[in-house]
């Protein structure tokens, strides 16, 4: 591994870790003051510490691109002020010799962000929401996800969708336990003692051991048992596979899946943004010469753009949730905007 690569790689990595530690410390302090008012009113010291520790993976997953932008900017400003960029240029080394180690650090950050978002935050977010709901908001925890209900010799399996609708499976059995009928519907809702089913598939066994299947566009099933209160699964509680299958269920039922599609694409767009941020840092903070004013403005602009990136991400989520723009486009919008701007500024700086 070339010496220059190791030098820039280790320098950028150390500044990024320092930036991450500083942001985590600021976050913990602010969050501690915010949640301290609930101490003795649902929260105790143990739950407070658990809450803070569980919030860290979420914070890292959300802010990793911003951490990379600030960390890389700090390191490049340091190189510029120490005339080391001039030395690199004088040695005939192009911008690629700087971007390659920076991109390697960003790739590690992107991999860490993806791993945290895929396998850590679905677990920690579930526990966080439970603490928030039960111990802070003092609400009874409702039954999430799939639920089974029994009405005489009929068993209902309900998977919550949206707008108080469910994917329904009903099994009807004889007193001796033998099954008599199965009904599948991708979309059903309950009102005044009646289940209204769409695109129902009714399966019944016949005496000659041949399955009889009937498809009905609409069907009603009377039942004294309605759905119990059930929370919709939250996108932040689901990994890629769960999101993918749930989106297919919603589409099969003819329902919108905006926030879930957004969350699915964010699992890839957010890590990719880490790579784009080091290009932005190079475009703003890589100077030849010791010009403190330009370096300071570059750092201020980097911090400001990091905040804008986060705001655009939140705005995209709100627009996708309200069906104003396609959710996949909303998830990739911050990366498209910042990636295109970063490449343009860098090419302009290099005289292209």
Automatic annotation (TrEMBL):
It is found in: Cell membrane. The chain crosses the membrane at residues 12-33, 53-77, 98-117, 268-286, 298-319, 325-347. It comes from the Bacteria. It is a multi-pass membrane protein. Keywords: Cell membrane, Membrane, Transmembrane, Transmembrane helix. Its main location: membrane. The keyword Repeat does not apply. One of its GO terms (biological process) is lipopolysaccharide transport. One of its GO terms (cellular component) is ATP-binding cassette (ABC) transporter complex. InterPro entries: LptG/LptF_permease (IPR005495). Pfam families: LptF_LptG (PF03739). This is Permease YjgP/YjgQ. The lineage of its organism: Bacteria, Pseudomonadati, Pseudomonadota, Candidatius Mariprofundia, Mariprofundales.
